[in-house]
Amino acid sequence: MIACWPVRNASRTLFCTAPWLLLATLLTGCDLDGYPEDLRYPPRTDVLVVDKPKVDAPREQGFERPGEFPKVILAGLPEKEKEQLTIDPANLKDDQRNVLEDELTKRFGTPAAPRADIGDAALVAQLKLDDDTLRRGSTVYRQQCLHCHGLSGDGRGATAPWVNPHPRDYRQGVFKFTSSSQDEGRRKPRKEDLLRTLREGIEGTSMPSFRLLPEDDLEALASYVIHLSMRGEIEFQVIRALVKGEESNVPETISAYLELIRGNWQGAQTSLIKPPTYPGDTLKTEEERDKYLRESIARGLGLFARAQAEGNLKSAGCLGCHSDFGRQSAYKYDAWGTIVKPADLTTGVYRGGRRPVDLYWRIHSGINGVTMPASSSSLTPEEVWDVVNFLQVLPYPKMREKYGIKLEQPPK
Fold this sequence. Notes:
mainly alpha, Cytochrome Bc1 Complex, Chain D, domain 2, 2 domains, two-stranded antiparallel ribbon, two-stranded antiparallel sheet, 13 helices, 2% strand
């Protein structure tokens, strides 16, 4: 250990602190040289969660204590049920594992020299997955993201066990907050969704805003996240198919899944959910707008708080997860096998963004990876706006009082 007696001048201060600064630089990996050229992405050894449990997580289970993640995947489930919902990469044959690692390196490169040989030059250009951009993104990722999201994007960096919610694991190709309208299971984010997350951070989590980074760095970082996600999802799907005996030829299986994944990313970039004009914007007078808002908020409360449809009155089904407006939500399992809790919407913390359009997107198409379903098939666009208006009032007692909302009274 380096010990220093109290110092009286700058030179002695530098002598004492310089070794610590050097050590901190080496440990955090913030030097400018990038990754070692011989470093490879590690093969996946942790279990694959291939389905969400159909039951709630035991309330007594709660969240794991700091430092226990990722040892607690599907915590609280009997071992037999865990086995039915997971696949162990250890069951891969040695020759299959070796071919898979070689093929992934050929197509996606290494941390120091990432690439995206995905067979679609137009998509590479659209998402900026060229070698130069990915190399820049890899450097920024190492400096800013590695300690949480891990080398391969597994969400298991050095700090991950100590924060909750845990950093996102990109390897299943699942992103929660999207503005694209594809079907659940296929839906990828638009690149702009990733950039919004980088610029704004995620409220209520350890994901900060990186708005102060140069725009070119943000673009490169978003491209690199897409690169990690594509690589990880290919690995995930191929391991799943090989272990289950659905496929045996690794290169052919990679090509088949890559075509699907590539199509999903391509489709997302052109499937922006476009809400119709906000009804209140078409009204000319303040009195008309206030009348609309009052009636809309009341309708939104009914849609939210009605447990089921009653005659001509619809239910948005929200209370199925957000019990007592989220104040008594049950614990759930997500697509990553971790325990989560549907948001307490009375707090006004919206991880996917608090703009009206952000709320519209979440209600319209749901949230990937969790139990939040899409409402676009059951609610009209105007009804989605009603729920949005209600959610914007819900966290604020004085606004609830102004619009006559009492959370304990049954909806009309």
